[in-house]
Amino acid sequence: MNKEVFLSLQNTPATHNLGKSLGEILPAGSVILLEGNLGSGKTTFVQGLGTGLGIKETIDSPTFTLINEYFSGRIPLYHFDLYRLESSEIEALNLEIYWEGLEVPLGIVAIEWAEKLVYYPPNFLRVCLSFSNVENIVDETLCGRQAKLISIGKFDLDLDII
């Protein structure tokens, strides 16, 4: 059953902390599909995920390398960025190798620009990030990032604990 949770993220550290909280509890085999415009916090979220996993290396967006692999945490993190890819290039990545642990150790797969995917894993957490930058506004709570987390399939996570 799909479940949705909406969160208001007041600032960049809140986005990082959301990722960190998930990194501390997600099991190997978890797939996180990140969606949102440029600057919405996708990479910040993955940096927090890495912190929660105990990864000490700097986590950068793999925009030009397509994938960054991190093995120094409690489980591996595979970080993809599909921004510059066409559908045929995305299909050729054979992403199921990562989310099924076929040729690599099973870990957490985080995919930025997941709305470009041509096929999906059966179970995943969709994280939709948005950013509101309304000028001349008195109530600053209306500004900032928002996150919608949607568990798809049998993604086993109690979203209420986040």
Task: Let me know the average pLDDT.
Answer: 87
Q: Separation of termini?
A: 18 Å
Helical proportion?
Answer: 10-25%
The count of β-strands is: 7
Sheet bearing the most strands, described? 7 strands, mixed
Shape: globular
Order of H and E elements: EHEHEEHHEEE
Number of helices: 4
Low-confidence stretches: none
Strand content: 25-35%
Spatial order of the strands in the main sheet? 1-7-6-2-5-4-3
Structural class: alpha/beta
Write a concise keyword list for the protein shown above.
4 helices; single chain; 162 residues
What features would you describe in this structure?
With 162 residues, this protein is of the alpha/beta class. It contains 4 helices and 7 strands. The chain has helices spanning 12-25, 42-53, 87-92, 96-99; strands spanning 3-9, 31-35, 67-70, 77-81, 108-112, 124-132, 144-152. It has a 7-stranded mixed β-sheet with strand order 1-7-6-2-5-4-3. A hairpin with a 6-residue loop joins strand 3 (67-70) and strand 4 (77-81). The longest helix is centred in the N-terminal third of the chain and has 14 residues, at 12-25. The protein is globular. The two termini are 18 Å apart.
